[in-house]
């Protein structure tokens, strides 16, 4: 037989296989089978109460939608500005689809960079007030690509203890020395930097808005400490972009650092902006380095044209219509104030992310189920996503919610909170 050639049973007696491949009879039956591994792992998740079974939306992502066949007020999505089903975004997406097709057809570095990709990146850099911007495929992969492309052995990275999982995983891929500082604590950041001198690049990494508690990193103080030690500040603004700062330019803009070359901002385009993708923005040379070093960028096909069109329209729309940001924050202030009046603990959140604490995970999950029965879609979160005694329901208020939506949600919360003994 020719090397590597497959032979059917009718063509010869030798077993069909690739060079170096053994037949099943050559390998003794041992170890754990795939079926057994899957059964064991799923059983463990089920017994620990951590098995996830996502609810299914039967209608577009809106402030009111249909979930598992039920009409609900939606407090579970990241659709801050109501862009996920916005008519202007859909119109631009359809236009780009017709003009440019359904896909880019290649990775960006080979033949997948369409003119619209570069146009949008220039638009994004202008919007963010940065020297450059590069779009990747998700916020998660952006952290992997930027941290992996930027950090080397001998560098020092100091990360907030409550940073997002994508930052944690991205740092695991680097050979930099990794240290942790206490959550949102500039004094502890100063201590860690002082105790860990480095001749390499020093990077302070923080979320801009923390996704579980809804608090904001004190960037004014963190950047001051970082600069004292010659460190660069890296801000993951997934929940701040489109929410904080003028026209939603982000947490970096909110604190006045948008023109600073020693501040890198990354984030997602799938929350406030209604589409999908991630971005990195900052120093004028950052984009060129990432084009050459960021592995998710180098080995993934470029974003489809319809997505690019929708995102470009989103940046136009948030600047054209200031009422989007006004409604987002009016709704946020109203909802938080009323939850506080009812007696709920919202952990001092100051952003549209509004946690309502129920204590034990079982109570948070039961509250979520009861709220759903009352027409409110809000998801319970327990350990290990949040601390054991701080299980909560995370609510996200959007610009699209009406006062009637929020009052219906508050009425349901009052009933469920009293029934479960969380409020009087």
Q: What's the CATH C level of the largest domain?
A: Alpha Beta
What's the total helix number? 15
Quote the distance from N terminus to C terminus: 81 Å
Low confidence ranges: 1-16
Q: What's the name of the CATH homologous superfamily of the largest domain?
A: Type I PLP-dependent aspartate aminotransferase-like (Major domain)
Give the CATH architecture of the largest domain: 3-Layer(aba) Sandwich
β-strand amount: 15-25%
What's the structural domain tally? 2
Helix content: 25-40%
Strand order of the largest sheet: 3-9-8-7-6-4-5
Query: How can the largest sheet be summarized?
Result: 7 strands, mixed
Write down the overall geometry.
Answer: globular
CATH topology label of the largest domain: Aspartate Aminotransferase, domain 2
Return the structural class. alpha/beta
Order of helical and strand elements: HEEHHHEHEHEHEHEHEEHHHHEHEEEH
**What's the overall average pLDDT, rounded?**
93
E-strand count: 13
* Rg result: 24 Å
Describe this structure as you would to a colleague.
This protein has 424 residues and is of the alpha/beta class. The protein folds into two domains: 119 residues, Aspartate Aminotransferase, domain 1 (Alpha-Beta Complex), CATH 3.90.1150.10; 235 residues, Aspartate Aminotransferase, domain 2, CATH 3.40.640. It is 40% helix and 15% strand. The protein is built from 15 helices and 13 strands. The strands form three sheets. A seven-stranded mixed β-sheet has the order 3-9-8-7-6-4-5, with helices on both faces. The longest helix has 20 residues. The protein starts with 33 loop residues before the first helix and ends in a 5-residue tail after the last helix.
